[in-house]
Every structure is written in C-alpha cells, then in structure tokens.
Design goal:
Fumarate Reductase Iron-sulfur Protein, Chain B, domain 2, 19 helices, binds iron/sulfur cluster
Length: 377
C-alpha cells in the first residue's frame, strides 16, 4: 500500500476507541501510545515525515501485531498492517529497529537462529535412537519437516514429537542437518531488506533440495513461509502446512490411532496459526484432535478468531518483558484448567516464562505432546 492510501485509511478513524478494548498491550499498560488508536496516530506522524519521540517508537515496537484490533474496527482499518508499515518506514530511514532487534538480527545472521542458540546444539532435540539412521538432506524426499528456532532450541519437544509421530505413521519426509532461520523475526522488526535476503537464501536452498512440501511446527514459520514469502517471491510455490494439518490427515486415514487420556485442558489459538493466518481448518483440527485424544477442550473465546495473543508476538518480550508478563497473567486468570495448550512453540515458551515470573501453577504444553502421549498409551 502506498503512503497516501495508508494516510487516508488512518484519517478514516472515528476516534471511537472501540479497538482499545481489544488490545492487550493497552489493557495492561493503560498507555494510549500502546493502543491501536494511539499507534495509528504515531504511524500518521511517521507517514507525514514528522519526528517521533522515543516513547512513540516504543509504542510501535510493543505492538504484538496480533491483529485483534483489525477485527474490532467498525471502519475496517487494517490497523496492524499500518503499524507494521510505519515500522518498515522507520527502518528505511535508519530510525529503527531498537538496539535489541539489531542484536538479535546480528545473532540470526551469525548463528542462523533468533534465540542465541549454539548452532552445534540445534539437533539436540533429535532422539538418540533415530540419530544414527537419519540421512538429513541426503534422504530422497520432496517433503521437509522444518522446526524453526523456537522448536529447535527452546521447546524441544515441539520438534521431537512431530518428528516421532511422522516416523511412527511411516510418513515420507526429511529434515535438515543445518536448518536456517525462517526470517520472520527480522521481517516483524521491520527490516524487510535483510528479511528478503534470508527468504531468498532459503528459497534457493529448498530449490536445491527439490522441496515441494514444507511442514512446520511454529506459527511464526507458518505465517512467514505461507504468507510473507509468497508476497515477495511469486515463484515460491511450495505447499506449506502446519504439522497439525498433517497429523489430522494421518488420523483420518487411520495411520495413527489415538487413545483416551481423560483430562481437561485449555486450547489457545496462536495468532499466526489462527487470526492472522486465516485458515479455518486450523481452528477446528486442533480441537478435534485433542478431543480424539480423550481430552475435554476448553477455549479462551467462543469465537476462535477472537482468541487473545499469548503476549509475545513480534519480539515484544525483548522490548518490554513486563507487558508480556502482565498479558500472560491476565490470560492465565481466565483459564480454569492447569494445562494450557498451543500449536505454536513461541506461545508455549512465553506461557512458561509468564508462569515462572508470576509464580503461578499453569502447565504449558505444545499440542503434539498429547497426541504423542495418546498414541503411545
Ligand atoms: S476502532 Fe477503528 S475507528 Fe475506532 S478508534 Fe480504533 S481505529 Fe479508530
Ligand atoms: S495488533 Fe494487537 S497489540 Fe497491536 S495494536 Fe492491535 S490489538 Fe494491540
């Protein structure tokens, strides 16, 4: 969208403040600079080439880009896209991102991951019994199971269980010995130039390996490969699927059998698997699969599109961790069950962080934990 169109859209704002009730970063800070409406005003200054203050810059960079405000606005203003576009403009003018983003982006370039992990430890999630026979890139398959930084380093069972479930089902796939970062963090920070370089390298790698299907475990990777890569590279024609969609199909065709676990859990729809991704089956499939595991599934909103963000999207924890901690606490207070389940390792990691920081008693798990446990029962 060009800047005049963005400005026109911003100016169509009625100042009704409906969006404020939907924005968690506003609700936990009560700071208008950290609200959708306030951020639109900052973006307007950016597009009008006016200087913004450091507080206003932080206002833009504490947006999780969860897109919940977008569905609330009676004027249908694409608020989160406008906020994002203003970050891109600031980066182009060398006025952003923040120091923390530059530090993490440097880490991504040097270590191929966004979490400061030792690249030699990237495969630590791989079970010993599979290690000796794993062929990695040499395996003759056009399907790649891709884990991303969060599954590989931070929530390792969200790599181990998807891998083991596909192996148990006899699914044909390969994995990489040296997996690169998908680039979503860099893109979210507004640095499109560096992000595009990462996308290009990854596309070339996938082409070299003959990849036609990509299965991912992380919401950020899903959104990046299926939405952002295609936006910039029209010839990117790889079929991208979330692991849940694949497991759902395997269960339907009786390649895996689920046995009852008899527990009650709360399922959380990650923004980048749900609302932002806009793929209906990825609302129903996780619920159905969890129910087939014999679990009573509670949810955070009757309308899955309105499920609140976990509070960690778009690198906000590095900018102001207190906001994540407060959002998480609010979210936990709405949950009756001990277990909270997500289909994104970033949400799982953030829930664990929030639980620790708030000294609560919640158990945060990646969705395939239950599926694996149910298969093995
Ligand atoms: S809901 Fe839409 S119109 Fe109302 S204040 Fe927010 S952005 Fe403006
Ligand atoms: S995208 Fe999410 S965090 Fe950002 S302004 Fe909208 S509701 Fe708030």
């Amino acid at each position: 969208m060009n800047e005049n169109v963005l400005l026109e859209e911003i100016q169509s704002c009625l100042d009704c403040k409906t969006c404020l009730d939907y924005c968690d970063t506003y609700k936990v800070t009560m700071d208008e600079l950290k609200s959708p409406n306030g951020r639109l005003k900052i973006a307007e200054k950016v597009f009008n080439n006016q200087e913004i203050t450091d507080e206003e810059r932080i206002g833009l960079y504490t947006c999780t880009l969860c897109a919940l405000c977008d569905i609330a606005c009676p004027q249908e203003i694409k608020i989160s896209e406008i906020i994002y576009a203003s970050k891109v403009k600031l980066v182009e003018e060398n006025k952003a991102p923040l120091e923390i983003h530059n530090k993490i982006i440097k880490g991504i370039i040097e270590k191929d991951n966004s979490v400061g992990g030792n690249p030699n430890e990237r495969l630590n999630w791989l079970p010993e019994n599979y290690k000796t026979n794993e062929l990695f890139e040499k395996k003759d398959s056009d399907t790649l199971l891709y884990f991303g930084c969060m599954s590989s380093f931070r929530v390792k069972e969200s790599a181990t269980h998807p891998y083991e479930i596909l192996k148990l089902a006899g699914y044909d796939f390969k994995i990489l010995e040296k997996e690169p970062c998908c680039g979503e963090y860099v893109y979210s920070a507004g640095n499109v130039k560096v992000a595009k370089d990462i996308f290009k390298e990854n596309i070339q790698l996938f082409k070299r390996l003959g990849i036609k299907n990509l299965i991912v475990t992380c919401g950020g990777c899903l959104y990046a490969f299926d939405k952002i890569y295609r936006k910039y590279f029209e010839d990117f024609n790889i079929n991208v699927r979330h692991i849940i969609d694949v497991i759902y199909e395997l269960e339907k065709s009786s390649k895996i059998k689920l046995k009852p676990l008899n527990r009650t859990i709360t399922y959380h729809d990650p923004c980048r698997v749900g609302r932002k991704y806009k793929n209906g089956p990825l609302y129903s499939e996780p619920r159905e699969l969890l129910e087939k595991c014999g679990l009573k599934v509670k949810v955070l909103s009757a309308n899955p599109e309105e499920t609140p963000c976990c509070g960690s999207g778009s690198g906000i924890r590095g900018v102001d961790s207190s906001i994540c901690i407060k959002i998480g606490k609010e979210l936990f207070n709405q949950i009756e069950t001990t277990d909270i389940v997500s289909a994104c390792p970033l949400c799982v990691f953030n829930f664990r962080y929030v639980n620790y920081k708030n000294q609560m008693d919640k158990e945060s798990r990646y969705i395939t934990d239950y599926i694996f446990e149910s298969i093995k029962k």
